[in-house]
Amino acid sequence: MHADALTPGVHAGRLPPAQYAKNFCDAHPPLTLAQAKIEADRCYYCFDAPCQTACPTGIDVPSFIHRIADDNPRGAARTILESNPLGGMCARVCPTEVLCEQACVRNTHEDKPVEIGLLQRYATDHLMAHPGAPLFTRAADTGRRVAVVGAGPAGLACAHGLARLGHSVVLMDASPKLGGLNEYGMATYKTTGGFAQKEVAWLLSIGGIEVRHGVALGREFQLEALTKEYDAVFLGLGLAGVNSIGIAEPQASGLRNAVDFIAELRQASNPATVPVGRRVVVIGGGMTAVDAAVQSKKLGAESVTIVYRRGAFEMGASHHEQAWALENGVHIHHWASPTQLLADGGQISGVEFGRMHMADGKLGATGEHFVLEADLVLKAIGQTLVAQPLGSALELKGGRIVTDAEGQTSHAKVWAGGDCRFGGRDLTVEAVEHGKVAAHSIHSALSGFTA
């Protein structure tokens, strides 16, 4: 290990320069042509395909795989993107192991399902590299204008769907780049080569979408004004708030939100410039916790530990993601909850945890405690909707926006989707489906509307 990796405190450049390129290369390299054809030939092309049913966006999986087998990747990409306009990103970050691939009938005959995610990536990557004529074109201009607030997966899918149907869209986002979590919230090794922005460029190429960067609901514009200025509004706000860990947080360096750490790394021109601790503790059990922990290790941290208050089966991160963390040298400590953050001289020095257990069906403390030394503590215990800009205009439940099955809120002119919508699973692919369905619902509403 590089000498700087053993230096206490939070520092950048812990590894030799060449090591960063190796650590942050594509975690799952794409299939070659030969590999793609071999894998496609493993598909049974089921008529009543359970993999398609398991896909939140309903991609016709057997059809796109059959096109790959027939050496027609463009046709495969069209089949994918017709159902999921962000099919390229979903192929990289979607938990296919618990969705389409888990449903693959190959699982009943052998241990290994068809690699649906990698085949989906093969087709969409081929299209991005060889775009050719546009796959989709806009319908005739309807004269209707729709505001889409938030350019994450839900907002992008909705904007693209509305533009295809002939509506004019104004896409607004508070960040300098479009993409939401696809750009700022995913592990760097999952989306190499600036793919998020390539996909955004493809989505915008449909035309009819005006982009406004650096504007936020409740700051540059208000919901009430949007409902008066536009024929409809779609909210893809995501979850911008971060949950508290429920204990006192000292004014000390070395304590960060995991989402901010991930975003900094994603936007860094060189991962060597991103500081990381020698001993890192990540509090939480979801995908964000795993992404933050693994990337801390890849940045040169000597010891990285995820601490979660319940057991492995209750973790938000899938079994696949947990295994990925362990494979990369991350320790996972279950049944422990933070009780005190320790600091020395204005610098985080560790975390005291209380051991937890289940008693009479309820989570409780055992009374035992232990301390993990740390110079960097990353909080990854979930995010919340910042609801204040919504005022009392929309019905909320569980801190999120209530909608019907098509995404329409309690306000007749407002739809919502993605993580900000109540009842979802916080999956990129589900957010895309929310945006897609809402676009068709908005279109139906506007088609029957007369000014």
- The tally of structural domains comes to 3
In the CATH hierarchy, what is the superfamily of the largest domain? FAD/NAD(P)-binding domain
Amino-to-carboxy terminus distance: 69 Å
Helix content: 25-40%
Low-confidence stretches: none
Main sheet summary: 5 strands, parallel
The fraction of residues assigned to DSSP E strands is 15-25%
State the secondary-structure class.
alpha/beta
Overall pLDDT: 95
CATH topology of the largest domain: FAD/NAD(P)-binding domain
Specify the overall morphology: globular
Overall radius of gyration:
23 Å
Instruction: Please list the strands of the largest sheet in the order they lie side by side.
Output: 4-3-2-5-19
Strands, count: 19
* CATH architecture classification of the largest domain: 3-Layer(bba) Sandwich
Number of helices: 16
CATH class of the largest domain: Alpha Beta
TL;DR of this structure?
The protein has helices at 17-23, 33-40, 50-54, 61-69, 73-83, 87-93, 100-103, 116-129, 153-164, 181-184, 195-204, 223-229, 258-267, 287-298, 319-327, 428-447; strands at 10-11, 145-149, 168-173, 209-213, 232-235, 241-242, 255-257, 276-277, 279-283, 303-307, 331-333, 336-344, 347-359, 362-373, 376-379, 383-384, 396-397, 400-401, 414-416.
